[in-house]
Amino acid sequence: MKVLGIETSCDETAAAVVDGERRILSNLVFSQLEEHRPYGGVVPEIAARSHLDHLDGLISGALAQAGLGFDELNGIAATAGPGLIGGVFVGVMTAKAIAAARGLPFIAVNHLEGHALSVRLSGEADFPFLLLLVSGGHCQLVAVEGVGAYRQLGTTIDDAVGECFDKTAKLLNLGYPGGPAVETAAKGGDGARFALPRPMLGRDTLDFSFSGLKTAVRHKVAALDEPISETDQRDMAASFQAAVADVLADRCARALALFQDDYGRPGPFVVAGGVAANAMLRARLDDVARAAGTVMVAPPPSLCTDNAAMIAWAGLERLQLGLTDSLDFAPRPRWPLQEVRGPTAAAAASERV
Ligand code: KG4
Ligand code: ZN
After folding, report:
1. Which residue's C-alpha comes closest to atom 8 of ligand 1?
2. Does the first or last residue of the chain, that is N or C, have fewer Cβ atoms within 10 Å of its Cβ?
3. pTM above 0.85?
């Protein structure tokens, strides 16, 4: 089975082909970084136009690299939300057009489900598993019981982790995108120099809060001499990253204990989403997993940040279960993971009809 995946929900235009043997036959990503850089963040209108300009070429390229024509595919999957709606429309309309023209099944993939299942592309996580999903827009702990069976255990009550990395980078003049810049700056920095808060640490909850940490970084940076020195940048980046690591570690340890109670086994413990590309956080979360009697599994960094291989893979898993979508599926700017339907919900819905 071979599926073409399309990703256009933010500022990466991407197309990829994967097969049922978990092989990535092609995985092309065009990053719009340079187009958004002057604005210090993603501009939705620019993103949508850029997807339109680049998507066709990426799809042809992905097929050429996979050595396949449209007729050798078994389905077309596209991110249908959540995300910047102009971009999502571009991807979904393109996928629907190919599906209609070639008589292929169309699969509307939830972007978060793409992240959630991405680790299964390397074959490392059987259901059920505990997932920490950390990206630019999300920070959630989820019990993943199967395709379309997502039980949220905790979520951020304010900001997402990736967003905090991006804000911190901006405050420190480290540029955009923030995550990788903060990680690089933090190397060799003194993580104990700035006393930053660890919001909700030790509290009996699986929710997160990052706005207090973000504000504290802003105040401490404002108190620094201008222009900010390289040492200050490094120390603040390291202090910030240490605070994030402490909070994530605390909450994940709690979630792993709960998962053990609910499912009778300690893991697997999966970390996915753009922030999961961070080597320091990966190492810290691996320690947490080992202490709980399991290991942390995460996709390789290139599959943590937005890509189309994960969308193709989620599409393939859905297709294998007979979960395809009609061509009138409407893209959704907001689409919580818990609302994604799986085989059970789909069967119940068709019985009702
Ligand atoms: O999953 P993703 O590519 O897009 C969303 O679905 O949001 O995640 C992007 C986020 C950005 O906030 C980015 O700064 C962050 O992931 N990120 C990182 C790293 N690489 C990307 N955060 C920390 N360390 C990194 N190495
Ligand atoms: Zn993402």
Report:
1. 274
2. C
3. yes
Cβ contacts of residue 111 below 8 Å, gap of 6+? 7, 9, 79, 81, 82, 83, 306, 311, 335
For 127-299, give the CATH class: alpha beta
Mark 150-179 as b/e (b = at least 16 C-beta within 10 Å): beebbbbebbbbbbbbbbbbbbbebebbbb
**Which residues does a 6 A CB cutoff place in the pocket of ligand 1?**
10, 135-137, 162-163, 165-166, 177-180, 183, 273-275, 277-278, 305-306
Which ligand is the nearest neighbour of the Cα of 42? 1
Q: Which ligand is nearest to the CA of 299?
A: 1
Do 2-117+303-341 and 127-299 agree at the fold level?
yes
Distance CA 326, CA 176 (A): 38
CATH class of 2-117+303-341: alpha beta
Question: Distance from CA of residue 90 to its chain's centroid?
Answer: 20
The arithmetic mean of pLDDT across residues 260-277, rounded, is 96
Interval between CA 134 and ligand 2 midpoint (Å): 9
Convert the pLDDT of each residue in 122-166 to its tens digit: 878 999 999 999 999 999 999 999 999 999 999 999 999 999 999
Distance (angstroms) between ligand 1 centre and the Cα of 179 equals: 6
